[in-house]
Write a structure and sequence with these properties.
Pfam families: I-set. The chain is about 20% helix and about 45% strand. By secondary structure, the protein is of the alpha+beta class. Strands 1, 2, 3, 6 and 7 form a 5-stranded antiparallel β-sheet that branches. It has a 4-stranded antiparallel β-sheet with strand order 5-4-8-9, with no helix packed on it. Strand 10 and strand 11 (about 110-115) form a beta hairpin.
Length: about 170
Amino acid sequence: PPRILTLEEPVLHMDHCIAFAVHGNPAPTLHWLHNGQVLRETEIIRMEFYQQGEVSEGCLLFNKPTHYNNGNYTIVATNQLGSANQTIKGHFLEKPFPGKGELRHWSRGLFSLQIYGTPKFLCVDSKALSFQVSIAVGLAAFACVLLVVLFIMINKYGRRSKFGMKG
């Protein structure tokens, strides 16, 4: 049956790595849990390992993990003869602004702010926001037209006459 030989805390090399070594014959299949939930591999979190005889060695790699990636990571090794698992705590970053709340969701002018476990909602008037955006766009367009007109006037009237030169 599979046996987990080593499971190490995250270390930063090129990416953060939770190193592991698993022994088993036949070779076990490996998967990970994050806080008890099945961990899906993505571009940010992926597993790389190689098989050397009856031992699989590798890393669970994290590309720029955040505080959302903190938690318990469990490796589960399974083959026809049984299964084994082991858990380690992964801590990557502190939560920003602890105790100040956390911006959870943004959708069509409605913000959900989590403060001490109770959701609070902030409403943003979409008409006022669109009015402010239209004012900003209008001012930017006016400034561009003004610059173009000034550029043309300087080029046309700012030159000295070629024939007004005295020889």
